[in-house]
Amino acid sequence: MKKLINFLTTLCLPALFASTPLQAAWLEVTGSAVMLESEHNARTNALEDAVYQAMAHAGADIASFSHLKPYLSSARTEYQFSGNEVRHIVVLKSGQQSGKYYLTARIDIYPSANTCHKVQYKKGVLLSNFSLISPQHAALGGIYQLGNDFTVLLQRQITRHSQSFVVSGATRVAVNPGQPSAMMMLAEDNDAQYIISGQITDLTSTLEQNRFSDDQVNRQFAATMEIMDGKTGEMLLQKNYREIAQWPFARTSHVDTQSARFWQSPFGQAVQRVSRNMMLDLENALSCRTSLPEVVNVFGTNVQVNVGRIHGVKRGDQLALWHSAGFIDQQGIPRNRMVQTEITLQVERVYEKSAELTVQQPDLASSIQPGDLLTKQRPR
Fold first, then answer.
1. Cα-to-chain-centroid distance, residue 71
2. What is the per-residue pLDDT for 362?
3. In a 3-state reduction of DSSP, which class is residue 240?
4. 257: helix, coil or strand?
5. What span, in angstroms and rounded, lies between the C-alpha atoms of 170 and 122?
6. Nearest by Cα to 100 from 43, 48, 32
7. Mean pLDDT on 137-149
């Protein structure tokens, strides 16, 4: 996917200082989308691609992207928003080339310094392997490994582009919402605050006959995503996704789903769009939930926690301690409960996935136990 991002200005207006950050940016971005169902749908997808690129490049809160999407489906040359970091969009030009729709837009963005991902640590997620509900759907092209490859794709999408989450591990253990205790143990073993699982539900194809050219095969890609709270076993989000795109490969060919040819095809790009939408829904639903680092070891007035550099931990950070007081109710359902303490800790050493902290009230250090939780304090 070709990405063209040019800074036009990085000026700020004095009148806006009180309500906006100190730097605003005009970005000129070209988005692209595969032509298939209609020019209107391709235009919408290309405009969404351009806006997403601009927000990610400017450091804006991508969790708010889903709030913009409904308005981008209207075919206008200019869009204005209030209450969002994206303020103004002007479509400069658009056109088709080689089966793709390209759209260039100028986008005015005012990134905020107080969005959730900027004031707390990244939260760990555990990915469960996406399976094929009906393996016979994969017979065309022999893409039986697509579930594994899609899991890797989603992991890469979160690792590279998520602002609020980091993949702490992947598992082939089937996620069962009916066994919350087992799922909580699985999350704890992988230092994950959330568990993401899903299935690929539809890979069927249809033949579109054309009198003037070769027949075209269009193929469905439908998937589900479920997100579970690793601390309580509660199901937090369930969502379905569906895309349809041209399948350009010969009917008798065996397609390598790890090849560039597959991922650059119209169908491969549709699959990539689903993975991006999953990542954005994850951001939208859970980015503002509190990150909960956990105490894993205590030695005197020094404490080790299960978050580190990849989560955004920095030397000198201040954290507040909460005692974990979870319990199981009369129905056998685990209930999470936290009791705030007067203990604060400061980060002294940072490693890749862990950190060492010093207790600021040494006389209270004896009450700290593995399993206690922490929250990041905002700098004063």
1. 21
2. 93
3. strand
4. coil
5. 17
6. 32
7. 95
What burial class does residue 376 get, using C-beta atoms within 10 Å of its C-beta: 0-12 exposed, 13-18 middle, 19+ buried?
buried
* Residue-by-residue DSSP string for 185-239: HHHHHTT-SEEEEEEEEE--EEEE--SSS--EEEEEEEEEEEEEETTT--EEEEE
Reply yes or no on whether the pLDDT at 369 is more than 70. yes
Instruction: Give 285-343 pLDDT, tens digit per residue.
Output: 999 998 989 999 999 999 999 999 999 999 999 999 998 776 677 776 666 677 889 99
Q: Tell me the two tokens of residue 134.
A: 């009906």
Residues 6+ apart with CB under 8 A from 221: 200, 202, 203, 242, 243, 244, 245, 267, 270, 271, 274
Token pair belonging to 310: 């990849």
With cut-offs at 50, 70 and 90, classify the pLDDT of residue 36: confident
- 3-class secondary structure, 263: helix
Q: Between β-strands 194-202 and 216-229, what pairing exists: parallel, antiparallel or unpaired?
A: antiparallel
Task: Give the CB-side neighbour count of residue 148, counting CA atoms within 13 A.
Answer: 7
Q: Could you tell me if 123 and 131 are in contact, meaning their C-beta atoms sit under 8 angstroms apart?
A: no
Is 4's pLDDT higher than 50? no
For 131, residues 6+ apart whose C-beta sits below 8 A from its C-beta are 147, 199, 200
Work out the number of other CB atoms within 10 angstroms of the CB of residue 230.
27
Which tokens sit at 125?
A: 């997620």
In this structure, the chain runs to a length of 380
* Structure tokens, 108: 């005015």
What pTM was computed for the model? 0.84
CB 359 within 8 A of CB 310: no
Tell which residue, 303, 297, 246, has the closest CA to residue 271: 246
Dihedral-angle region of residue 141 (phi above 0 means left; psi in -120 to 50 means alpha; beta otherwise): left
Is residue 197 within 8 A of residue 128, CB to CB? The reply is: yes
Under DSSP, is residue 11 helix (H, G, I), strand (E, B) or coil?
coil
Beta strands of the chain (E only): which ranges? Answer: 4-9, 25-34, 78-80, 86-97, 100-109, 123-128, 131-132, 165-171, 194-202, 205-208, 216-229, 235-246, 295-299, 302-305, 318-324, 327-328, 334-335, 338-350, 355-359, 373-376
pLDDT of residue 39: 87
Which conformational region is residue 160 in: left (phi greater than 0), alpha (psi within -120 to 50 degrees), or beta?
alpha
Instruction: Name the token pair of 370.
Output: 């593995």
Radius of gyration of the chain (CA): 24
